[in-house]
Design goal:
131 residues; alpha/beta; Rossmann fold; five-stranded parallel sheet; 44% helix
């Protein structure tokens, strides 16, 4: 399993990486442009991500822009199994939550991040820890 963690805050990246490492390979992007590049590169390498944890407030491209770009790319390429996207952000207001689901995320996780919540979302997506 491949997971991409996208967050411009070091402590959030570290917490997510530590929490997700038992599930598989974890890559990190520190801004939206890097996230889109990593997503496309993974497809070029024929090893796409199974899951992306995506912050909203980031430099260069915010999480909403990344989410829209990823979903448009998947639609254009007629991807049969789209990547599962979890918005992991400090923004818990109704507008951001609703927009994220409209744009195609599967889950929305409000910071501060907690390992138990991350593990719960992974279980809901059907992902289990590797042996």
């Amino acid at each position: 399993m491949r997971i991409l963690v996208v967050d411009d805050t070091l402590i959030s990246r570290q917490l997510l990486t530590h929490s997700l490492r038992p599930y598989g390979e974890v890559d990190v992007a520190v801004n939206g442009e890097e996230a889109v590049e990593s997503f496309r590169m993974a497809w070029d390498e024929k090893a796409p991500y199974d899951c992306i944890f995506l912050d909203i407030m980031m430099p260069l491209m915010d999480g909403h822009e990344v989410l829209s770009d990823v979903r448009k790319w998947e639609q254009d390429k007629a991807v049969k199994n789209p990547v599962q996207i979890v918005m992991s952000t400090a923004l818990g207001d109704r507008e951001n939550v609703l927009n994220s689901f409209k744009e195609g995320c599967e889950f929305y996780l409000v910071k501060p991040l907690q390992v138990a919540k991350v593990e719960g979302i992974m279980a809901e997506m059907g992902f289990s820890k590797k042996d």
